[in-house]
Amino acid sequence: MTSSKGVGVVETRYFTFAEPPHEFVLESGEKLGPVTLAYETYGTLNEHKTNAILVLHALSGDAHAAGYHAGEEKAGWWDNFIGPGRAIDTDQYFVICSNILGGCKGSTGPKSIDPKTGKPFGLEFPDITIGDMVHAQKKLVDHLGIKKLLSVIGGSMGGMQVLAWMIHYPDRIVSAIPIATAEKHSPRQIAFDEVGRQAIMADPNWKSGAYYDGPPPAQGLAVARMLGHITYMSDISMAEKFGRKKKSANEDGPFKFTAEFEVEGYLLYRGESFVRRFDANTYLYITKAMDNFDASADRPLQDALLDKDMKVLVIAFKSDWLYPTYQSKDIVRACKQAGLETTFCEIDSTYGHDAFLLEKDDETHLIKHFLRRCYQHLHKP
Predict the structure, then answer these.
(1) Is the full-model pTM beyond 0.90?
(2) Which residues are marked as active site?
């Protein structure tokens, strides 16, 4: 049974590294420093530091994966999965989640102050990759004194980071759980991201990324988020949630292109709320990093995974049309061809891509038993 009690009140902490002249070298060859990562931890690291799990967030996520911040009512973005008795049981495991490099919730990103100019980086921030995010996370794991992670787990863009860990640092992980993700974006996935980017850049307040001393490109970012939410839901989930229900009578009189249907109002609300917590330039940088990601760098993924020693659990969702199941099956096939012990499950969900955040019971069952098996294997006599 899953405990109703979560991890309680938590605090975000900060790790800074790469102080000049020892800057962090990005995959592009550019250098960045100092670099700060915001992170949170839940549970207790055991004496031998063998129970650590790194949770990796998706596009709009941050370090606050579980629990509550003091004075706030909103729980972390994966709170239903992290805590005593939950999928990632904090009575047994030590959980780490950091805001990615390039993020806007405490980690160094485009809105951070450039020490050379004393102003926000804006588009002077260097291009980043999924690999760069993972290399920075490895610095944090080293800082915490952890030699080997029991598991790395994440959905969507978080799943891409899981794959990057599998490629770059296979000797630092016992297991990996990529959820609803892909080894590289399809043309359709790139196209959706590009429409979102164009919406931001078409906003007159964007000003080529130099908007930090004035109003942000709120309309453009809101439209980008509205588009994203359409792709996160399935046809069935939208029909069940909204149907063709209309909002209350328009106080402005006859129909004048206002939000008439409930689904329109929902998208407007989602767009407006996103603008209050996210940075438009960060959206541009992160989506570009996702589009440029190729787990195996143009060689067969199975070749990149050969001679690696880790257990893998791949999870997909039947109604996910943004990251369809065939992409997860491609990952499974490559893992098995590389000789990795691999488990695959497609969950019969109607939630679409959002399912990785919502399908608590099925995911909990899969993740809990997989982690238990990995932990027992690691500690067998």
Answers:
(1) yes
(2) 156, 320, 353
